[in-house]
Amino acid sequence: MKDGRPHALTVVLDGTTGAAARQARALGAFLRDGVSRAPEADAGPAEATGITLLFYADERDKERLVRLAPTRDVHLMRVPPRRPDLMAAALEALAGDAGAELFVFAGGPLATELATRLACRTGGGVVTDVLDAAIEEAALICRRGVYSGHLTGRVELGPRPWWVTTDAGWCDAPPSAPGEHRIAADTAWLAAEDDTGAAAPLADVEALESPSTSDLETARFLVVAGRGAGSRQGVERLEAAARRMGAAFGVTRPVAMNAWAPMDRLIGVSGTRAAPAVCLVAGASGAPAFLWGIERAGFIAAVDTDEHAAIVAEADVAAIDDGVAVLEALADLVAGEPAAPPA
User: Fold this and answer.
1) Radius of gyration of the chain from Cα atoms?
2) Residues 48-65: pLDDT tens digits?
3) Dist CA 316 CA 334 (whole Å)
4) Parallel, antiparallel, or unpaired: how do β-strands 9-14 and 102-105 relate?
5) Do domains 9-202 and 214-335 have the same CATH topology?
6) Nearest to residue 70, comparing CAs of 131, 10, 114?
7) Rounded to whole angstroms, how far apart are CA atoms 300 and 314?
8) Tens digits of per-residue pLDDT, 274-299?
9) What angle do CA 297, 300, 305 make, to 5 degrees?
């Protein structure tokens, strides 16, 4: 915050990875040379009016990461490592501030996923691999490479907030960081939930390590949740059932993209390729990219409400039913607990 007012421009720096310095260089150069304002909207240099939202996982890294921030004002946000779902929740909450109109990420696969997901959630606009951007009164005008970079295209975003990722070329620009920084806020964002079921910010709490993906690679028994789980609560119920059965737990890409589960649980081309003896799939359509992730399984059982879903044809056995209900009942049997009486 600055003089009690929200910043209109926010650059997002992911300090939970080893690429923070590279991201900071790209963001600083983009703010300095790639962002311009229309005269009627001019409020000085972009780097002077923006704020850096800096995600970090370890207190010991905080001071070093703050020095990388490309803006003077820094909002620190502590998250566990490898938890882009929590980063998305924090950004969505920040975007609810009426003054937050433009969010800029350094280019990369995760940045593209976050920007696209958040634009859908917030009703804003998104453009990736941006060469430069002009902030006008009612729109954001961006240029980006098209046709494999042989031509330059012009993209106009209307509805706010705007979500932008920079072109990879900005990473080669000279660094540009202010001489001093001011901490606007320092909070933690963990996997707690408020009364609405949304992730909520917590202060003075210990960040917890996210589980390693190695359990997916070595699991002999795997449960995978698909979009048919219906909601984050449905995915959590499937995860609980998997634990009761002693199974590892993974998800399909739509589940991860909706931030219903961490990205490190992703099974398929974009995540982990598993080879369990038994794989139970609940509510997944069976897209080729996902099937690649489980095709080495010894036995595949699928539960889906769509008898024509591709996963039904690919599975060794399939049940046409609600995946959450079936797996919870199966977990009762495995755990030796009595089944609930019929309603």
Assistant:
1) 22
2) 468 999 999 999 999 999
3) 20
4) parallel
5) yes
6) 10
7) 8
8) 999 999 999 999 998 899 899 999 99
9) 145
Q: Where do the domains of the chain lie?
A: 9-202, 214-335
Q: Which residues contact 267 (CB under 8 A, 6 or more apart)?
A: 216, 222, 224, 250, 251, 252, 273, 274, 290, 293, 294
CA-to-CA distance for 252 and 228, rounded, in angstroms? 10
Other Cβ atoms closer than 10 A to 44: 8
Mean pLDDT (the chain) is 83
Q: Residue 259 is encoded by which pair of tokens? A: 């931030």
**214-335 sits in which CATH class?**
alpha beta
What are 280's strand-pairing partners?
223, 301
The CATH number of 9-202 is which of 3.30.565.10, 2.60.120.260, 3.40.50.620, 3.40.250.10? 3.40.50.620
CA-wise closest residue to 175 among 102, 106, 75? 106
User: Is the separation of the CB atoms in 241 and 263 below 8 Å?
Assistant: no
Q: What is the pTM of this model?
A: 0.57
Torsion sign across C-alpha atoms 172, 175, 176, 177: positive
Residues contacting 130, CB < 8 A, separation 6+: 30, 34, 142, 143, 144, 164, 165, 166, 167
Residues in the chain: 343
Nearest to 277 by CA among 339, 218, 232, 229: 218
pLDDT digit string, tens, across residues 81-90: 878 888 888 8
